[in-house]
Specification:
Chain A: This is Chemotaxis protein CheW. Chain A: InterPro entries: CheW, CheW-like_dom_sf, CheW-lke_dom. Chain A: Pfam families: CheW. The structure holds 2 protein chains of 2 kinds. By secondary structure, chain A is mostly beta strands. In chain A, about 10% of the residues lie in helices and about 45% in strands. The radius of gyration of chain A is 15 Å and the shape is globular. Chain B is globular. At the A-B interface, strand 4 and strand 5 of A face helix 6, helix 17 and strand 19 of B.
Chain lengths: ~140, ~800
C-alpha cells in the first residue's frame, strides 16, 4: 500500500499523491461560495450529508485562481477531522510506483517548495510528491 | 483485545469521575452506608476487570483501596478525612494510569507504593482508635460483570453507583456508531426531499403520495429520536465538581458546602464539552476569590461554612446554569482600580462607567485575575475566555452581584448546538442562516416604521424611534448586491447577539425558517469570524451559519445599547406598536383545513404540544402545558400521537388554546370586513390576496370558555331575588345576572347569606327583611323615576341595573 500513488495534474503540475492521504476522488457541482474566506477556499459542497471545503491548489502555490467547471474532479482528503477537496486539473492514474522518493533537486517556485515533500520517478518523468494536507494548512502565498 | 481495553478505559473513566462526588459525600457523612458500598463496588469492579486484562498496577491500586474500604464496611476501621484523602489519591493514580493506558495501550511502569503505603499508614494510625462495630458482614453486593460476555455493548445499571438515581437502564454505544446513525438519518432526509420533489413533478397518483407521506412522517419521527440520542443529563458535568470543591477548599483552608440541583436537565453532548471548562472555572473562582477566609466570614457575621450551589434548569429554548456563592461578591470599585492597574481602562473611561459596566470589566480581555494568582485559578482561563466560549455556542453570561453577600453567575446556553432553528436569508445571490434565537424582529426596509439614515459614511436605522447600527450583509461579506434582487424584498433583521447589544442586519430577502443541523466549518472558514458553522438544509446545498457576534467584531461597530436614543421614543414606540398590532392578522389553516385569520394582538404565542397533552375532562378539552392547564376550543380530541399546534389566545386574564394545523402568514388586516350575520366563532370575512378568509371572533371564543374557569375564580357574589311573584325574575333577569357573573338564589330557600338583595317590587314595604347588612336594590316597573331621590332602578334598564349591582357588591364581573 505504501507505494500506491495517485498521479494527477493539480495547479498545472503533474504530481504524485500518497494514496493513504486520500479519501476519494469525486466530481462536484458548483460549490457554494464562502465570502470573506481566504482566497484558496473555492467554496463548500456536500457529499453524502457531509460538507466539504473545496481548495484551489493554484492559489496555494501562487497562481491565479481557476473557475470550477461543473463535473470537475476533486481529490477528497481529511485533515484534522475536517473534510476538504482539492481541485484537480486532471486525474491520471492510481498506480504503484516502485521507485523510492528522493530529495527534491533543483529550485522550485516558492509556493511549490512549501507543499512538495519529495520527488519520484514514474514512467520516465519526475513527479513532485505532495502531501494534500499542506494545501490546506499552509498559509497562502501572497500573490505578488 | 483492544476493544476490551477501550471499553474498560471508557467505563473506568466514567466510574472514576462519578466516584469523586460520591466519595466527597461519603466523607461528609461517614456513616452513609450506601455511599460506602457504592465506592466499594466501584473499586471492586475495577479490580475485577483489570485482573482479567492483566494490568498489575491497576489491580494493585484497586486492591489496596478495596481492602481499606472493606475494613470500613466490616467496622474494623473508621472513615476519617485522612482515609478519604488516601482513597482519593489512589483514585487519582488510577486515572493517571488509565490515561497513560489510553495513550499507548501499555500500562506505564511506575511504583505505586507511595499511595498504597499512605493508605496503610492511615490504617495503622486508625487502628488505635477504631472501635469494631458489631455489624453483620455484608457480602459484596454486586459481582464484577462477566467479562467474557458480549463486551461490545455492555449494559450497566446506572444505579450500581448511586442507588438514588432513577432506574432507567442505559447501554454503551461507541460514539462513531451514533454519529453514523445520525449521518444516515440526515442522508435519508435528503433523499426523501429529493424523492418528494420528483413525486410532485411526476404527478404521481394520490395513493403513492399517501404512502410516501406516511414514510415521510416516520422519517421525521426517527430524525427526532436520533437527535435525542445526542442528549445527556447534565449530571455528568456536575459529577467532578464536588471533588474539585473539596480539594480546593481544603487547600485554601475554607469550609464549603456544595450543592447541585437540576441534574436531570438534558444537554447536547457537544454542548456539554463546551461548558465543562467554564463551569469548572466558575466554581474554582467562587472558592478562590468569592468565598472569604474563615476569619473574614466570622467578622462579616456569616456562617463559617460557605455555600456554593450549582443549579441547572431549562427555561424555554435555553438551559440556564447558575453558579451561586455566598461570599464577598464583586466590588465594582475594586474592579475598576484593578482594570486601571492592568491598563485595560483609562481613569477617564472608568468615570463614565455605570455600576453594571464596572462589573462587566471582568470580561475584558487582559483583565486577568493575575494579581491574585494562586496555583488554583491561575489556569490561564480568564472570564473573557469563559464568555467567548459561551458566545461561540450562542450562549450568554450574566452576573448577579450582591456586594458583600455573594455573586451568582448565570450561564445561558441554547438547548442544542447541533440542531437549531435558523432563519434563512439571502444576500449577494446566496443563502445564509441566522440563529433564530438571536433574532429580535424582522422588518421590511420599506416598512413605515423604519427610517434609514446615512451618517458620516455609516448607516443607522430607527425602528419606531429606537436606533440601531445598520450593517448590510453584502458589505460585511465584501460582496456586491445581486442584480436579481428586488429592492422591495430587502429586509432588516434586528439582531440581539448578546445582552444589551443589538444591531440591524440588512439582507436582500428573507427566505424561511428551518431546523438546521449545524456542524463546525473548516478552521480557515471559522477564522474569518463571520461564520459559526455550516449546515445542510433539505435541498442539499451547504449553507453557512452567520456568527452574529463575530460580524460585530469584524465590522468593528459598538452594538451596545447603552446610551442610545431610544428612551424618549418608547412612548411613540408603544403607540405605534399598538396600532400596528391592531391591524395585523395571523393567517392560519385550522384543523378542518380552512384558512382563517385572527388578530395578532390577541395571540400570546403559538405552542406545539404532543397530542397526548390534550385531554378531555368534564365535557371540555383541555391542554396541559408545563404546569398549567388551559381550555382548548375543540369539539373532540385530536387523533394520532403526533404534535398539535395551539394558538394561545390571551385576554389579559385567561388563556384559551385554539388548535390549528399550521401558521400561514402575518398580513395586514384589510379595512373592509364583511361582518357575519350571526354571532359566533366567525366575526366576519375579509379578502386577502383575492381569497376569502374567515376572521375568528376572539370575544366570542373567550366568552364560550370563560364560564368554565379552570383557575379557581373568586367566589361569585350571590344575588337573591325577592318578591318574584310572577317568575319574571327567574325567567328574564336571572340569565342576564348569571352572565354577568352572579349566582342567583330565589326565595328564602337558601341558607347562604346573599351579597345583595334584588327586590323585584317597587313597594317599599314588600321586602323589608330588616337586615341592614345586606344591600338592597329595588326595581320599578316604570321607566320614569318617581323623583330625584328615587333609588330604584327601572327593571329593563340593563346597564343601570348591572352598574347598581356591581356598585353594591363591589365586585362581580359586570
Amino acid at each position: 500500500m505504501d507505494n500506491l500513488y495517485l498521479v494527477a495534474r493539480i495547479a498545472d503540475t503533474r504530481v504524485a499523491l500518497r494514496s493513504r492521504a486520500i479519501n476519494s476522488v469525486v466530481t462536484v457541482a458548483t460549490p457554494v461560495e464562502v465570502p470573506g474566506a481566504p482566497p484558496h477556499v473555492v467554496g463548500l459542497f456536500a457529499l453524502r450529508s457531509r460538507v466539504f471545503t473545496l481548495i484551489d491548489p493554484h492559489v496555494v502555490v501562487g497562481l491565479p485562481p481557476v473557475p470550477v467547471a461543473a463535473g470537475q474532479r476533486v481529490i477528497v482528503v481529511d485533515v484534522a477531522e475536517h473534510g476538504y477537496a482539492l481541485l484537480a486539473d486532471e486525474i491520471e492514474d492510481v498506480c504503484f510506483i516502485e521507485a523510492a522518493e528522493t530529495r527534491i533537486a533543483g529550485k522550485l517556485m516558492p509556493g511549490w517548495a512549501r507543499v512538495a515533500d519529495a520527488m519520484i520517478e514514474h514512467q520516465g518523468a519526475s513527479l513532485l510528491v505532495v502531501d494534500p494536507a499542506h494545501f490546506v494548512t499552509i498559509p497562502v502565498v501572497n500573490a505578488a | 483485545m483492544d476493544d476490551l481495553l477501550n471499553d474498560f478505559l471508557a467505563e473506568t473513566a466514567e466510574l472514576l469521575a462519578e466516584a469523586g462526588a460520591t466519595i466527597v459525600a461519603w466523607e461528609a457523612d461517614p456513616t452513609d452506608r450506601e455511599r460506602l458500598d457504592a465506592i466499594f463496588r466501584l473499586v471492586h469492579t475495577i479490580k475485577g476487570s483489570s485482573g482479567f486484562l492483566a494490568l498489575p498496577r491497576v489491580t494493585a491500586l484497586s486492591h489496596a483501596a478495596e481492602e481499606a474500604l472493606d475494613d470500613v464496611r466490616r467496622g474494623k476501621r473508621t472513615a476519617d478525612s485522612a482515609l478519604v484523602t488516601a482513597v482519593l489519591s489512589i483514585l487519582d493514580r488510577l486515572s493517571f494510569v488509565c490515561d497513560a493506558l489510553g495513550k499507548d495501550a501499555n500500562e506505564p511502569a511506575g511504583d505505586d507504593g507511595d499511595v498504597i503505603d499512605a493508605l496503610a499508614q492511615v490504617e495503622t494510625e486508625a487502628d488505635a482508635v477504631a472501635e469494631p462495630e458489631p455489624e453483620t458482614e455484608p457480602e459484596p453486593e454486586s459481582e464484577p460483570e462477566p467479562e467474557a460476555e458480549n463486551r461490545e455493548i455492555r449494559t450497566r445499571r446506572d444505579d450500581d453507583l448511586q442507588t438514588d438515581m432513577q432506574g432507567w437502564r442505559s447501554i454503551r454505544v461507541p460514539l462513531p456508531l451514533l454519529d453514523s446513525v445520525m449521518t444516515g438519518v440526515t442522508d435519508i432526509v435528503l433523499a426523501r426531499n429529493e424523492f418528494a420533489r420528483m413525486l410532485r413533478e411526476s404527478g404521481a397518483n394520490p395513493a403513492v403520495i399517501g404512502s410516501f407521506d406516511r414514510l415521510s412522517d416516520s422519517i421525521a419521527t426517527m430524525r427526532q429520536s436520533v437527535s435525542q440520542m445526542r442528549m445527556q443529563r447534565i449530571d455528568k458535568l456536575f459529577a467532578p465538581l464536588p471533588r474539585i470543591v473539596r480539594d480546593l477548599a481544603q487547600d485554601l483552608g475554607k469550609k464549603v458546602k456544595f450543592v447541585t440541583s437540576g441534574g436531570e436537565v438534558e444537554l447536547d453532548r457537544e454542548m456539554m464539552e463546551n461548558i465543562r471548562d467554564p463551569l469548572i472555572h466558575m466554581v474554582r473562582n467562587a472558592i478562590d476569590h468569592g468565598i472569604e477566609t474563615l476569619d473574614d466570614r466570622v467578622a462579616a457575621g456569616k456562617d463559617v461554612t460557605a455555600t456554593i450551589s450549582v443549579t441547572a434548569r431549562q427555561s424555554g429554548n435555553q438551559i440556564e446554569i447558575m453558579i451561586a456563592d455566598d461570599g464577598r461578591g464583586l466590588s465594582p470599585d475594586a474592579l475598576v482600580a484593578k482594570a486601571i492597574g492592568a491598563r485595560v481602562l483609562s481613569a477617564a473611561e472608568a468615570r463614565a462607567l455605570s455600576p453594571k459596566e464596572k462589573l462587566e470589566l471582568i470580561f475584558r480581555p487582559g483583565f486577568s485575575t493575575a494579581s491574585q494568582v494562586t496555583s488554583i485559578s491561575g489556569r490561564g482561563v480568564g472570564m473573557d475566555i469563559v464568555r467567548a466560549n459561551l458566545e461561540k455556542i450562542g450562549g450568554v453570561v450574566e452576573l448577579r452581584n450582591e456586594e458583600g453577600r455573594g455573586l451568582t453567575v448565570v450561564l445561558r446556553v441554547p438547548m442544542t448546538l447541533t440542531i437549531i432553528s435558523g432563519l434563512m436569508v439571502r444576500a449577494a445571490g446566496q443563502y445564509f442562516a441566522i440563529p433564530r434565537g438571536a433574532v429580535r424582529e424582522i422588518l421590511l426596509e420599506t416598512s413605515d416604521s423604519v427610517r434609514i439614515e446615512k451618517l458620516g459614511g455609516g448607516e443607522i436605522v430607527s425602528v419606531r424611534g429606537e436606533q440601531f447600527p445598520l450593517l448590510r450583509l453584502e458589505d460585511v461579506l465584501g460582496r456586491h448586491r445581486d442584480d436579481g434582487d428586488d429592492a422591495d424584498d430587502r429586509a432588516l433583521v434586528l439582531i440581539r447577539p448578546g445582552q444589551d447589544q443589538s444591531y440591524a442586519l440588512s439582507v436582500a430577502a428573507i427566505h424561511d425558517h428551518e431546523e438546521l443541523v449545524i456542524k463546525p466549518a473548516a478552521p480557515m472558514i471559522m477564522a474569518t469570524g463571520l461564520y459559526a458553522g455550516t449546515t445542510l438544509p433539505d435541498n442539499g446545498r451547504p449553507v453557512l451559519l452567520l456568527d452574529v457576534q463575530g460580524i460585530l467584531a469584524v465590522s468593528a461597530i459598538d452594538a451596545s445599547e447603552a446610551g442610545r436614543a431610544h428612551r424618549q421614543a418608547e412612548e411613540a414606540d408603544a403607540a405605534l406598536a399598538a396600532t400596528r398590532d391592531a391591524t395585523q392578522l395571523l393567517l392560519f389553516r385550522d384543523i378542518g383545513g380552512r384558512t382563517r385569520g385572527v388578530r395578532l394582538s390577541v395571540i400570546e404565542r403559538v405552542e406545539e404540544v404532543p397530542a397526548l397533552a390534550l385531554f378531555e375532562s368534564a365535557g371540555a378539552i383541555r391542554a396541559q402545558i408545563g404546569d398549567d392547564m388551559f381550555a382548548v376550543h375543540a369539539a373532540r380530541l385530536p387523533e394520532g400521537h403526533g404534535t398539535v399546534k395551539l394558538l394561545r389566545l390571551h385576554d389579559g386574564q385567561s388563556v384559551l388554546c385554539y388548535p390549528i394545523e399550521a401558521v400561514i402568514d402575518i398580513v395586514h388586516l384589510p379595512d373592509v370586513v364583511e361582518p357575519s350575520a350571526t354571532e359566533g366563532l366567525i366575526a366576519g370575512v375579509v379578502l386577502i390576496g383575492g381569497d376569502p378568509v374567515e376572521i375568528i371572533d376572539p370575544y366570542w371564543l373567550m366568552e364560550q370558555h370563560a364560564r368554565g374557569p379552570i383557575h379557581a375564580a373568586p367566589r361569585a357574589p350571590l344575588c337573591r331575588l325577592t318578591d318574584d311573584h310572577d317568575g319574571w325574575g327567574a325567567n328574564f333577569l336571572a340569565p342576564i345576572l348569571r352572565n354577568a357573573g352572579y349566582r342567583i338564589a330565589a326565595g328564602a330557600d337558601d341558607d347562604e347569606a346573599p351579597d345583595v338583595l334584588l327586590c323585584l317590587s317597587g313597594d317599599e314595604s314588600a321586602c323589608d327583611h330588616g337586615t341592614d347588612a345586606v344591600p338592597v336594590i329595588r326595581l320599578r316597573a316604570t321607566a320614569a323615576a318617581a323623583g330625584p331621590d328615587d333609588e330604584t332602578v327601572y327593571r329593563y334598564d340593563r346597564h343601570a341595573l348591572l352598574e347598581a349591582l356591581s356598585r353594591r357588591v363591589g365586585g362581580g364581573r359586570a
